[in-house]
Amino acid sequence: MNAPTLPAKDGFSGTPLSDAVAWDAYVAAHPDATPFQSRSWCEAITKATGHRCHLVTARDAEGRVTGLLPLHHIRSRLFGQALVASGFAVGGGILADNAAVAATLAQGAADMARSLGVPSVELRGGPLPEGWQVEEGTYAGFARDLALDDDAELLGIPRKQRAEVRKALESGLTVTTGRSEQDQRDHYRIYATSVRNLGTPVFPKSLFSCVIDAFGDDADILNVRNDREVVASVLSLTWRGTVMPYWGGGTTDARRLRANELMYFALMRHARTKGCTRFDFGRSKIGTGPFAYKKNWGFEPQPLVYARWLAPGEVARDTNPNSAKYRLQVDLWKKLPLWAANRIGPLIARGLG
């Protein structure tokens, strides 16, 4: 096993050509790979946030990669430090040929944390290493196959939600998709407004642009307009025939206008035109409004289980905005002027990882 770190290049991580090619090839060939283990994702996160990426790899006697684990070194004065697989992702974790290799990578990650003086390693997917702390009962994922056409898609939505979607389709709202600078500005404005209203700091604008640049045609933005005004927007990734609405939000008028209903139904339509056969609605915290909303669409929650290594005497960092620890801060954040939230938020949010 070796654990090369990624040397700085133009302010973000880069690898020697041989390592980069091997990384890309291994992810492309592995059936369980997610976009969050890809070099595209890891380099985009480092470029946007400055959090260095370390790649733990396992190789056989002939030097072929048999497993890998990208880890972002998240540093924050508010939230502490952790090696996270992967930064700003809802998945990732260990990718390995077999359980023995996975165990080797887990040990390598813990060894790296010790050498860097980092108190924890957080895995957001993949195999659960033996002896690591398990986190369950917090998140659930939502994914299902797409129907063959709009009519079949509508019939697959439970009756009450289907009625809302039909009203949205008849509302006169319009939909556009793209990746232009204007699309990105519109998306960030809507997303920043939405998370401020939820009491959550917004991510740096560069995070979105770097991900779009890294994924090329496999990332785009869908905007819903009321006349000319964008009222709902979502940035999605496409991965192996699955569309993943990743960062989305709406204005205060979006709910009244049923803009979110149109947005997600239109994204299903858009995904089919790109050859996708599956819709991954992402993860939500159990018991929250987004959790209930996705169930209303007919998606069945699948519990997500994460794993964490902790150095002796250390406690897990708390980055959950629903935690009682942050209740006052969340309430105050909702009252901030948008300009202030957009200026301060990225300085805080980049430490969440």
UniProtKB/TrEMBL annotation:
Domain BioF2-like acetyltransferase: 162-295
Pfam families the UniProt entry points to: Acetyltransf_6
Domain of life: Bacteria
InterPro entries named in the record: Acyl_CoA_acyltransferase, BioF2-like_GNAT_dom, PEP-CTERM_FemAB-rel, PG_Glycine_Bridge_Synth
Descriptive protein name: BioF2-like acetyltransferase domain-containing protein
Organism annotation: Sphingopyxis fribergensis
Taxonomic lineage from the root: Bacteria, Pseudomonadati, Pseudomonadota, Alphaproteobacteria, Sphingomonadales
